[in-house]
Q: What sequence folds into this?
């Protein structure tokens, strides 16, 4: 099992920055990919950014050059640095982890953290 706890959301003006953190616990050795999704009211949940155990990253086109995902393996924590925030970035941000298939597979989600960007 993997437990994910997010922190760092809040209210910020357009153009500002926030950093989200996701602390993982449990069978963290089995995590293959970890990252962030977001869901705005009335919209589907979408991938924001992810990072693999090997360090490869993937970003949504809408956040490239503004957001940066990183991980601290010693702390079992993944971060999402969000710069130049826009009102359309307003959403609940969820941490997501996928276990390696050889470890049993499975997707795990955090409880979500609200990010609100005012214009």
A:
């Amino acid at each position: 099992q993997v437990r994910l706890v997010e922190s760092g959301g809040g209210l910020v003006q357009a153009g500002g920055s926030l950093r989200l953190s996701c602390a993982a616990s449990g069978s963290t050795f089995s995590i293959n990919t970890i990252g962030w999704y977001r869901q705005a009211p009335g919209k589907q949940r979408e991938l924001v950014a992810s990072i693999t155990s090997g360090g490869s990253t993937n970003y949504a086109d809408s956040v490239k050059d503004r957001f940066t995902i990183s991980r601290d393996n010693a702390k079992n924590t993944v971060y999402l640095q969000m710069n130049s925030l826009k009102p359309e970035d307003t959403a609940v941000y969820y941490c997501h982890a996928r276990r390696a298939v050889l470890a049993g597979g499975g997707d795990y989600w955090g409880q979500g953290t609200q990010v609100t960007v005012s214009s």
